[in-house]
Amino acid sequence: QQMKPFPKNFLWGSASAAYQIEGAYREGGKGLSVWDQFVRIPGKTFKGTNGDVAVDHYHRYREDVDLMAKAGLKAYRFSIAWTRIFPNGNGEVNQEGLKFYDDLINDLIAHQIEPVVTIYHWDLPQALQDEYQGWESRRIIADFVNYAKTLFDNYGDRVKYWVTLNEQNVFMQHGYSMASHPPAVTDPKRMYAANHIANLANASAIKYFHEHGYQGQIGPSFAYSPIYAVDAAPENQLAADNAEQLNSYYWMDMYVFGHYPTIVRNWQEKQGIAPEITVEDQALLENPLSHPDFMGLNYYQTGTVAKNDTGVGAAAENTSGKKGTIKESGVPGMFKNVKNDYLQKTDWDWNIDPVGLQIALRRINSRYNLPVLITENGLGAFDTLEADHEIHDDYRIHFLREHVKAIHAAIDDGLQVIGYTTWSFTDLLSWLNGYQKRYGFVYVDRDEKSAKDLARYPKDSFYWYKQVIASNGEDLGA
Ligand code: GCO
After folding, report:
1. pLDDT digits (tens, 9 = 90+) for 398-428
2. Which of 133, 206, 433, 474 has its CB 3.0 to 4.6 Å from that of 437, i.e. a possible disulfide?
3. Residue range 427-437: average pLDDT?
4. Calpha distance 83→159 (Å, rounded)
5. At how many degrees (to 10) do helices 188-211 and 168-176 cross?
């Protein structure tokens, strides 16, 4: 029996984010973002690396788009830097910033590459953090909608796929619980309050989009790591359910159902950390016009948990984990994270689990009944540039091949998957791990001795992916 093929218009693509590739952090009228400031605090990032230059995509986007065309990409997901459009977050529009993305979008379209635009990928204007504490103030809702509307009005004639907030769970947990992203707070009450405001901003932007007749689809992208129980002991199964509710359903349910899961809400109330929800909030969040058209899924790995009666703390696992620093973590009374002996790990100790992607697609599809756009998936690894400028990343090919098989299996299961934009197209800045952690199909030479010019070299995986795209997922290589 033959497997169902990938849909004819499946969006085979790749992805990036403004801060991780653009550089030119003070050019083109750009304002400063919270990341431009945060990376300057000693000890926050690997060897103090920052995105001041990144891979200089701002000046080399034409070269990058040419490479995308060479790979045969059908789609490219990138984010817009809010600070290029509104240097202060609100107020006057910066025409130069608008023009940069206008040119990029036109160049993509000229090469028949579908632009998938992320509106917010973590680089909040510093001015809004200073003015009213960013996500902690409801004033951000109007500013975010105004920014999103500016993008819809300027690019909506050409952009058909919009991602509102990227990995809200990650930027909230790292920013307000683990203090590893700006604004570097450790306060769960403030985190859940800020997160609720982000939910209102997300819902308002989606509602605006739906009410004003723009053509296309819009939804958030979420870093979903499905959770397994360590074994069949009922207490561990319950712990896995706790983790799934707290880590994932708490965040995603709000997008689609407009309410938080009872169990988590109750758990928060007992500790006095539940966000305040007004009658108006409820009406907005439950309005179907504020619900997404698809769920964006960033899938890297699964988690495994056991019951937690020893009170192991730390609110969440550090998902940008630095090599060798994974420590015991969990949520007291709910679950603790444990090792999964069935899974191998990446150079950064992330679990490698292609079947987990099929499971993620099933869970999202059955819980939310929405099509899924896989907005990220990929392998962060150390790569070696050979003397002849080749990069033999067979480990990445293997990783991606197994994940493409899992997507194919999900499609064969009857699930609706719109596309796959791998992380990432070129190598780029890892927020906390510098430039040594490489994800791209295209190697960027940042070695000061050999290449100050940030030369681009396609890796073996580049040619492999080209083949996959050309055959619409039929030819996955050996
Ligand atoms: C890293 C991370 C990022 C994220 C991406 C999330 O190493 O910094 O892997 O690259 O995956 O920005 O959307």
Report:
1. 999 999 999 999 999 999 999 999 999 999 9
2. 433
3. 94
4. 20
5. 150
Ligand 1: residue whose CA is nearest its atom 12: 17
CA 148 to ligand 1 centroid distance, Å: 22
Q: For ligand 1, is residue 274 a contact (CB within 6 Å)?
A: no
14: left (phi over 0), alpha (psi -120 to 50) or beta: beta
Ligand 1 nearest-atom number relative to CA 17: 12
**CA count, 13 A, side-chain hemisphere, 278:** 6
Question: Could you give the CA distance from residue 398 to residue 379 in angstroms, rounded to a whole number?
Answer: 10
Distance 284 CA to ligand 1 centre (A): 31
Interface confidence, given as ipTM, is 0.94
Q: 322-325, long-range: CB within 8 Å, 24+ apart, which pairs?
A: 322/46, 322/348, 322/432, 322/433, 323/347, 323/348, 323/349, 324/349
Residue 114 Cβ contacting ligand 1 at under 6 Å: no
> pLDDT digit string (tens) for 278-299?
999 999 999 999 999 999 999 9
Which stretches within 92-244 are classed as H helix? 95-110, 126-132, 139-155, 168-176, 188-211, 234-244
Tokens of 360: 């993620």
Average pLDDT over residues 121-145: 98
Could you tell which of 55, 376, 382 is best to mutate to test the pocket of ligand 1, judged by most ligand atoms within 8 Å of the CB?
376
Q: Is the predicted pLDDT of residue 320 greater than 80, yes or no?
A: no
**Out of 376, 390, 402, 474, which one is annotated catalytic?**
376
Of 199, 164, 175, nearest in space to 276 by CA: 199
Ligand 1 atom at minimal distance to the Cα of residue 298: 13
Instruction: Point out the ligand 1 atom lying closest to the alpha carbon of residue 167.
Output: 13
Report CA(59)–ligand 1 centroid distance (Å). 22
Q: Burial code of 294-332, b = ≥16 C-beta within 10 A, e = fewer? A: bbbbbbbbbbbbbbbeeebebbbbbbbbeeeebeebbbe
pTM of the entire structure?
0.96
Q: Is 45 in the pocket of ligand 1 (CB under 6 A)?
A: no
Contact yes or no for 365/413 (Cβ under 8 A): no
How many CA atoms are closer than 13 Å to the CA of 196, on its beta-carbon side? 20
Q: Of 371, 421, 390, nearest to 15 (Cα)? A: 421
Residue 231 CA to ligand 1 center (angstroms) comes to 30
